[in-house]
Amino acid sequence: MRVNYDDLRVNYDDLRVNYDDLRVNYDDLRVNYGDLRVNYDRLLQNASPLLELSQNTTFKIYRKAYQKSLPLLRTIRRWVKKLGL
């Protein structure tokens, strides 16, 4: 009976050590998550003007391409109507 009690005590101590290790790891993960969140917010704040600029630039490029292709599109539409396609 004494041996079983000692074994249980050793197992309990091992579990307590494992629990403490897990707690430390969890606290480290929380700190890392907090740091990542701060970095993400900072990157997003810095990237927002660039995203806006790229969206405006992309829109301008597509608009310009559309305007340049309008005469060709009109001609194709006329041919399609003439040929009855």
Helical stretch count? 1
Helix content: over 70%
Number of strands: 0
Which stretches of 5+ consecutive residues score pLDDT under 50?
none
**Overall geometry:** elongated
For the largest beta-sheet, the strand count, sense and barrel status come to:
none
What would you report as the Rg, rounded to the nearest angstrom? Answer: 34 Å
Explain this structure to me?
This is Fucosyltransferase. Keywords: Coiled coil. It comes from Helicobacter pylori. The structure is a single chain. Helices cover 96% and strands 0% of the residues. The chain has one helix at 2-83. The longest helix is centred in the middle third of the chain and has 82 residues, at 2-83. The protein is elongated. It starts with a helix and ends with a helix.
Brief characterization of the structure:
The protein is mostly helical and 85 residues long. It is built from one helix and no strands. Helix content is 96%, strand content 0%.
Key terms for this structure?
85 residues, mainly alpha, 1 helix, 0% strand, elongated
